[in-house]
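Lab notebook, design round three. We kept the backbone fixed and only want residue identities now. Task for the bench partner: fill in a sequence for the structure below.
Input structure tokens:
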């Protein structure tokens, strides 16, 4: 089953997504038709078990599919990849619970789509807060990076409540107390990434996934840093295909193998290794192409901008330190 999904991903990436990628990059919004292709191929079920309509794949089975699709069109793949958090959380809720009944199968099959709003909780200063009120919670503050707005039906939101996080799966609908402001990005801009503003937005307990201590969540989060690395592998791999055979091919293979095999404590350095090859591969392509590479009609500039985007997407302080060391901006540690 996995081999069939990977083959379908390769055909979609090479036969459709890559051919459309420059147009998507310039259009300002990922076409709904691209996301429909992911749904029709069953890719929205990558994060969920078969009993709710998903694929039942584990993390290592997902990685090559993510890499392949990112190498076709990162913008489309990035919007789709945000779906995993909401879909997985809906599926793990108790059967018969309101969240499970409303979202689990719909998200697993791609009948509904989800995004995430939790990049902010890695910041030193909290910016989105949940306050207990009656039979629910009241949200105030800002979620600064929410991708796919207008293409998603639900959004997985995390907000601070003292030293805990309140996780909610909310309808992605604007309201007087929930508004969006679009961000303009140097790469992947057609993902329609917005800043969400919560102004006394009321959330009922039925929409709450869990309330968890921040440190407990952070320990769990560190186990999932592999996934974002697969996106950079896809961009780097596409650049190297366009470049032609080079010693960088071996480095890409080594980075992929190291990322797949990494233990939790090794993950930041393995992510930095992947980031480094991504920047070098895309820069090499730009250099090899020459002046045409910086025209909007050439994939080289798109891939180079996407590699820079992925340097900071899903980044932790440890990954940032690893990038800076590899790029020569800080002293190497023996």
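Proposed sequence:
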């Amino acid at each position: 089953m996995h081999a069939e999904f990977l083959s379908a991903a390769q055909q979609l990436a090479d036969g459709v997504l890559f051919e459309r990628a420059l147009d998507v990059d310039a259009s300002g919004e990922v076409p709904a038709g691209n996301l429909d292709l992911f749904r029709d191929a069953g890719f929205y079920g990558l994060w969920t078990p078969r009993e709710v309509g998903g694929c039942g794949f584990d993390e290592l089975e997902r990685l090559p599919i993510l890499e392949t699709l990112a190498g076709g069109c990162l913008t489309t793949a990035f919007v789709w990849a945000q779906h995993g958090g909401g879909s997985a959380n809906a599926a793990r809720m108790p059967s018969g619970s309101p969240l499970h009944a409303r979202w689990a199968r719909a998200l697993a099959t791609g009948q509904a789509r989800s995004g995430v709003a939790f990049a902010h909780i890695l910041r030193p200063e909290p910016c989105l807060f949940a306050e207990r009120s009656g039979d629910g919670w009241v949200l105030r503050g800002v979620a600064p990076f929410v991708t796919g707005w207008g293409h998603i039906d639900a959004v997985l939101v995390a907000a601070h409540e003292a030293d805990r996080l309140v996780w909610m799966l909310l309808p992605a609908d604007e309201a007087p107390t929930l508004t969006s402001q679009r961000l303009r990005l140097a790469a992947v801009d057609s993902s329609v990434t917005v800043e969400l503003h919560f102004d006394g937005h009321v959330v009922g307990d039925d929409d709450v996934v869990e309330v968890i201590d921040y440190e407990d969540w952070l320990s769990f989060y560190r186990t999932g840093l592999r996934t974002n690395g697969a996106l950079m592998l896809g961009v780097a791999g596409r650049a190297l295909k366009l470049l032609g055979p080079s010693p960088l091919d071996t480095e890409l293979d080594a980075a992929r193998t190291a990322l797949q095999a990494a233990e939790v404590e090794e993950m930041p350095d393995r992510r930095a290794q992947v980031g480094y090859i991504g920047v070098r591969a895309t820069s090499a392509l730009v250099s090899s192409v020459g002046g045409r590479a910086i025209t909007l009609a050439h994939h080289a500039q798109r891939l180079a901008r996407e590699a820079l985007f992925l340097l900071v997407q899903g980044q932790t302080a440890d990954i940032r330190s690893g990038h800076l060391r590899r790029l020569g901006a800080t002293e190497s540690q023996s």
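Keep this in mind before ordering anything: Strands lie at 114-117, 128-133, 136-146, 154-161, 164-171, 178-182, 194-204, 208-213.
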